[in-house]
Structure prediction request, 251 residues.
Amino acid sequence: MARLLTRRSLLTGLGYSAIVGGTAGLIFSPAFRDLLLGSGEALSYQSHRLIGRNALAPEFTEADMSPTFRTNGNTMPASAEYQAHINTGFANWQLKVDGLVATPASFSLEALKAMPARTQITRHDCVEGWSAIGKWTGVPMKALLDRVQLMPTARYIVLHCADDFSGSAYYESIDLVDAFHPQTILAYGMNDQALSVGHGAPLRMRVERQLGYKQAKYVMRLEAVASLSGMGLGKGGFWEDQIGYDWYAGI
Ligand SMILES: Nc1nc2c(c(=O)[nH]1)N[C@H]1C(S)=C(S)[C@@H](COP(=O)(O)O)O[C@H]1N2
Ligand SMILES: [Mo]
Prediction:
């Protein structure tokens, strides 16, 4: 709530004309040709972009960390492939990075851990009405994208997950501003421990300026795409497809 109020006061400070002008630009920007945003969502998206591509979500101290951080959604992917990874301690697991990239690549957990890491203590906000502050450690998505080199036609990064609900795979997507944002990481550590299965082992995204359902767990593959229309039901994510949650879940 505090952050929402902050954003509102910032918007007031920027003035109405800036927002209207910005929104007109937004509607015609190529990134939105294949997405129909609700007006509240467009305002949220555009206000974040006005505040700045690299504006940071608040970070907290160890003293602020929640004593318990509950799990939500799937907590144990059912697929045989994932079960095999659990049995082998993710030793043969690899993150694929492909799609519209110059050099598709796969990264073992060890390879990801050998890359420069970022640790951040942030607040997770679930639309179902709970929040928790936790510490996340992982590799910035930017570092992976720099390795594979996006093609100029790439506009979104799709995260393919190992789990499903009744056969519909969980997936999520973000634009390139969020993909290259310094706080967007693929986390393998939580609260100074290896990421647990319940919280998305071996790898989950943290995209800190958005809500909980964007924080994809059990990430198996990053795919660079030009359009989200061919993914799932075309709305850019599992909950976006199923119940119409906003694709841009800014907080
Ligand atoms: N793959 C996958 N990612 C997911 C979910 C899920 O069910 N499957 N649930 C989402 C929702 S709604 C929330 S609030 C967070 C919960 O993360 P946690 O279990 O670490 O608390 O994960 C998000 N990412
Ligand atoms: Mo959530």
